[in-house]
Amino acid sequence: MKFMDKTAINPAIELPLMEAFYTIQGEGAYSGCAAYFIRLGGCDVGCVWCDVKDSWNADKWPVTSIDKIVEEANKHPAKLAVITGGEPLMYDMSVLTANLRSQGFQINVETSGAHAFSGSWDWVCLSPKKFKAPLPEWYQHANELKVIIFNQSDFQWAEEHASKINSGCKLLLQPEWSKQEKMTPLIVDYVKENPQWQISLQTHKYLNIP
Ligand SMILES: C[S@@+](CC[C@H](N)C(=O)[O-])C[C@H]1O[C@@H](n2cnc3c(N)ncnc32)[C@H](O)[C@@H]1O
Ligand SMILES: Nc1nc2[nH]cc(C(=O)O)c2c(=O)[nH]1
Ligand code: SF4
Ligand SMILES: [Mg+2]
C-alpha cells in the first residue's frame, strides 16, 4: 500500500481512500437508497462534533488509484455513488466523477463547501460549517442544504444559509448525533412552524449499519 503526503497526490489518477462500502444512504433526500460510499481522507474544517475525525489526517489513508476505486464500485448492484470524507473537495474531483459517470453511476456528494467547486455532480448535499464557512460558489450548486443542529443558535444560522441558497434547493435540518435527544424535539417544533424545512435523521445509526 502506498501512503504519502497529500500535497504529493495527483487527483487525476489517485486519491487517499479511507474506506469504501456498499450500504443504505442514511441522510438527506436519498435516505433509504442503496449506495456505494467512497470516503476520502483529509479534512481541514475541524467540526468539534465530527463523527469521522479519523478521516482528518489524509496521510493515514492509502493512496488508491481512481481506476481501482471505480472497479470496486462497479461490483455492486446500485449505480449510485456517494462521495464523502473527510472533505472530498480538498481534491479536484474531475477525474473521479468523470470515470464513475462513464460507468453509468449517478454521483452524489457530501461537502462542507469550504473548498473550491470541482467535479460533475448529479446531487450536491451542502452542509455548511461554522468552523470554516462555505465558499459562495456552492450556493448555486446545492440540491440540498443540510444544516446540523447542535444548539439553539443553529436555527438562526441555518436561515442565514437558506437566504443565500438557490430557489430549488431542499432545506434540511439534521440533529447533531450526541445532542439528538435534546435537539430533535426542537427541530420537530421548528419544522411545524417553518414548513419549508424538512427533518433529516442519521437513519443508518438507528439501523446499526455503516
Ligand atoms: C462526515 S461529513 C463528510 C462530508 C463533508 N466533510 C461534510 O461535512 O459535509 C458527512 C455528513 O455528516 C454530517 N455529520 C458529521 N458529524 C455529524 C454528527 N455528529 N451529527 C450529525 N451529522 C453529522 C456532516 O454535516 C455531513 O453532512
Ligand atoms: N449510511 C450512511 N449514510 C451516510 N450519509 C452520509 C454519510 C457520510 O458520512 O457522509 C453516511 C454514512 O457514513 N453512512
Ligand atoms: S467538514 Fe465534515 S469531515 Fe470535516 S470535520 Fe466537519 S463534519 Fe467532519
Ligand atoms: Mg457519516
From TrEMBL:
The record's listing under InterPro entries reads: 7-CO-7-deazaguanine_synth-like, Aldolase_TIM, rSAM, rSAM_sf
This entry's Enzyme Commission designation comes to 4.3.99.3
| Residues reported to bind [4Fe-4S] cluster | 43, 47, 50
Q: Where does substrate bind?
A: 24-26, 39, 84, 210
**What organism does the UniProt record list as the source?**
Marivirga lumbricoides
Residues involved in S-adenosyl-L-methionine binding: 49-51, 86, 127-129
Provide the cofactor note recorded for this chain's UniProt entry. Binds 1 [4Fe-4S] cluster. The cluster is coordinated with 3 cysteines and an exchangeable S-adenosyl-L-methionine.
Taking every annotated instance into account, which residue ranges of this chain make up the domain Radical SAM core?
30-210
Q: What does this protein do?
A: Catalyzes the complex heterocyclic radical-mediated conversion of 6-carboxy-5,6,7,8-tetrahydropterin (CPH4) to 7-carboxy-7-deazaguanine (CDG), a step common to the biosynthetic pathways of all 7-deazapurine-containing compounds.
Keywords associated with the record: 4Fe-4S, Iron, Iron-sulfur, Lyase, Magnesium, Metal-binding, Queuosine biosynthesis, S-adenosyl-L-methionine
Q: Sorted alphabetically, which Gene3D superfamilies does this protein's record hold?
A: Aldolase class I
Does the record bear Secreted in its keywords? Answer: no
Task: Say which family it is in.
Answer: Belongs to the radical SAM superfamily. 7-carboxy-7-deazaguanine synthase family.
Its assembly, as annotated, is: Homodimer.
Reactions mediated catalytically = 6-carboxy-5,6,7,8-tetrahydropterin + H(+) = 7-carboxy-7-carbaguanine + NH4(+)
The answer, when asked if Thylakoid is one of the entry's keywords, is no
Q: What is this protein called?
A: 7-carboxy-7-deazaguanine synthase
* Pathway(s) the chain acts in: Purine metabolism; 7-cyano-7-deazaguanine biosynthesis
